[in-house]
Structures are given as structure tokens and as C-alpha cells.
Amino acid sequence: MTAISRTPSPVPAGARHLPADLTEPAGLREAFDGAGALFLHDTGAGHLLDPDAILGMAEAGGVARVVLLSSQGVATRPESASHGATMRAIEDAVRRSGLDWTILRPGGFASNAYAWAEPVRARRAVAAPFGDVGLPVVDPADIAEVAAAALTRDGHTGQVYELTGPALSTPRQRAEAIGDAIGEPVRFVEQTREEARAQMLAFMPAPVVETTLAILGEPTPAERRISPDVERVLGRAPRAFADWAARNAAAFR
């Protein structure tokens, strides 16, 4: 197994790390040489990628199978450049690549709650907008297991899997779950939309902020839908947010 990133990163036992940049496909040659399958993730820089060049380089190196981590927004927010159009272009490249392909479209990640780690550690408080709007956030561990299945087992070629958690959960409920995980109550403070927007603009482009707020505050029926695909692939129900919080409680203590 080979993992690539721009800078050195820890990798599991038995894996190797190679420094490479997806925006420079020629530099991927060593990583692809002799590989059989590729897990492709745009790392938030999809607009900078040439997916056809990446996939062509992968095929030349011997890759026969690709699993793409895309986004639910391809289907639910096609008008959004950040959440829909960019990933749609990468999906289209995967489909026409000639490789056996599987596309994963997760909704919101449970791990987005890491953004609350510092205020929980410092003040045992969480501030977020739309405190009682529920979304079926997905545990990244479930995404990883589905990806591993698609990479290593037959029967997933040509499939598009929408990945969600097992139930709707609200920001208020997620704050409570973190409190349960650390054994201390966590106070929830509901932000106004404008307060949340101002905070998000410090680290996100304005169009991304607007689409994100729309998803959080006025999710479509499709964004609130609980998908059966995790259970279909793994043979078990997806993990609840409380499971994620319990495993990651140390980050909030």
C-alpha cells in the first residue's frame, strides 16, 4: 500500500509514504507503478486537478480499479461550484477513464465536530447555528470501510454509494453526545446565521460558506435522507455520532 501527500504523514504499518502532489500528475508515476487500485480524494482542491491526467497516469502504471471519494452535493447541490460542479467533473472523468470505478458520495462528516474541540476543552461549550436541524452525519470510519470493500472486493464496479449515518442528529444533540463521551456536560450556544457566516468566512471562501449554511439550515429532503448503502456494503448498520464521539473523546477533554 502506498499513501501520497505533499508532506510526510504517518501511515499504517506495512504501508509506505511518497511525497507527491495531485496537481502534478507526472510526479505520481512512482506511486502508481505496479499498483492495482487507486483511492482518489481531491483533498478540497478539486478545481486545481486534471483528473484525466491523473487517471491516465494511474492506468499506465497498472491500476485497474479506482474508488473516488466524491460528495453528496453532486446530486443535491449541482448548482454549487464547491459542492457539486467540481466533483461532478471529477466523477465524469472517472466514468470515462476505462477503469473499473466506484463512486462514494458521503454527506456531512461526524468528524466536522473537531471544530468544537478547542471551545469544549476550554469552556465546555459549543457554538453553532441551526441547533435543532438534523442531518444524518456519517462516521469517516464507515467511509473508510466502504472504500476498502470497493477497492479489494468484486461486485462494486459501476456503483454510486451515498453514505450517511443511521439517524438524523442535530448540533444540539451532537454537543450532548460529546458531553456524554467526556463525562461532563457541554453547553450549547445557538449562533445566528450571520454570526456563523462571519466565523466561517475566516477560513472558507464566501460561495462555500453560503452553500454550507444552506445545507445546515435548510437541507433538502435528499440531504436528510438516511441511505441504506453503508449497511448494504458492510452488512451492518452505520455507526451513530455517539460512537464517533466516544472513540474521539480524548480530543475534547
UniProtKB/TrEMBL annotation:
SUPFAM superfamilies cross-referenced by the UniProt entry: NAD(P)-binding Rossmann-fold domains
Protein name: NmrA family transcriptional regulator
Domain of life: Bacteria
Residue ranges occupied by any NAD(P)-binding domain in the UniProt entry: 2-153
Alphabetized InterPro entries for the sequence: Ergot_Alk_Oxidoreductase, NAD(P)-bd_dom, NAD(P)-bd_dom_sf
Coiled coil segments of this chain: none
